[in-house]
């Protein structure tokens, strides 16, 4: 399956280039914020100002939640904090509250946010919104045996479950929690008492989800093939790099240390 098979789906809903990524994020955020009723909005995209033309004749957007007019994840977090009681169920608010604390880049926060509020553009969501997928395969590209839904793609697909299982073995906490707890971000917060361990596990959890999502997109839009090794090592690399950015780790710290024992590393975090 290639990008050409998606045609209008790419054009209207999914990120296909760096420029489109920025515009798509802005529009998606506007849609989500609108869905959440933030700021009393009622129509999709109402947190963006109407399209206007510059002197150069190019269209532009303005993000109303920021005085600068530029989109930012921080502005969404502030808006959600202001209106959260009206926007989400308590369980979702709890998940988002924990997610904002995780040491990850804004782009990844935005991904995690969309995952937790079930707004990632998986195929069943696109179909429910009337997007025509007739020219493409509505099945999960990881296993090919079930329709792609958010729950299936990330948690019930045999391919994804195998990855979660291997990551669970990697972190080495089978004596403390079960695989099912490890896979459930919400329950994970209640079962792991150590804040230090929880921070690392939360990063690994989001890195696992992000790596699966990237692989899914590579298969669909870049005609890639599933690679267990790519996802497996990406989880380690992403989680290490995100945590290292926030840590005062010693010069001797290395990716190899993280690879060998993720919960014994970054002792000062
Ligand atoms: Zn699947």
Concise summary:
This protein has helices at 3-6, 8-12, 18-35, 73-87, 90-100, 106-116, 123-128, 150-156, 158-171, 179-183, 185-191, 195-221, 228-245, 255-260; strands spanning 52-53, 59-60.
Report on this model:
There is one protein chain. The protein is an all-alpha fold. The protein contains 14 helices and two strands, in the order αααββααααααααααα. Strands 1-2 form a two-stranded antiparallel ribbon. Helix 5 runs antiparallel to helix 6, helix 9 packs antiparallel against helix 12 and helix 12 packs across helix 13. The longest helix is centred in the last third of the chain and has 27 residues. The chain is globular. The N terminus is likely disordered. It binds zinc ion (ZN). The site of zinc ion (ZN) has 7 residues, from loops.
What's the shape? globular
Low-confidence stretches: 1-54
Report the major sheet: 2 strands, antiparallel
* Structural class category: mainly alpha
Amino- and carboxy-terminal Cα gap: 43 Å
Proportion of residues in extended strands: under 5%
Number of helices: 14
Mean pLDDT: 74
Helix content: 55-70%
Strand order of the largest sheet: 1-2
Quaternary state, please? Answer: single chain
**SSE string, helix = H, strand = E?**
HHHEEHHHHHHHHHHH
Q: Hetero groups bound?
A: zinc ion
Quantity of strands, as a count: 2
Radius of gyration (Å): 19 Å
């Amino acid at each position: 399956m290639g990008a050409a098979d998606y045609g209008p789906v790419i054009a209207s809903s999914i990120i296909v280039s760096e420029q489109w990524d920025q515009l798509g994020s802005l529009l998606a955020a506007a849609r989500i914020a609108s869905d959440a009723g933030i700021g009393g909005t009622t129509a999709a995209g109402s947190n963006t100002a109407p399209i206007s033309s510059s002197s150069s004749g190019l269209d532009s957007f303005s993000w109303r939640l920021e005085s600068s007019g530029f989109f930012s994840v921080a502005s969404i977090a502030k808006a959600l904090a202001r209106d959260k009681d009206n926007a989400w169920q308590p369980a979702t608010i709890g998940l988002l509250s924990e997610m904002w604390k995780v040491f990850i880049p804004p782009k990844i926060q935005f991904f995690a946010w969309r995952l937790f509020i079930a707004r990632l553009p998986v195929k069943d969501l696109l179909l429910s919104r009337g997007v025509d997928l007739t020219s493409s395969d509505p099945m999960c590209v990881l296993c090919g045996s079930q329709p792609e839904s958010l729950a299936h793609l990330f948690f019930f697909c045999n391919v994804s479950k195998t990855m979660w299982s291997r990551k669970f073995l990697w972190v080495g906490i089978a004596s403390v929690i079960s695989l099912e707890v490890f896979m459930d971000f919400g329950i994970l917060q209640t079962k792991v008492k150590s804040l230090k361990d929880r921070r690392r596990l939360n990063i690994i959890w989001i890195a696992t989800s992000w790596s699966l999502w990237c692989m899914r997109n590579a298969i669909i839009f870049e005609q890639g093939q599933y690679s267990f090794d790519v996802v497996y090592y990406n989880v380690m690399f992403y989680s290490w790099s995100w945590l290292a950015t926030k840590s005062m780790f010693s010069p001797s710290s290395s990716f190899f240390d993280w690879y060998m024992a993720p919960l014994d590393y970054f002792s000062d975090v």
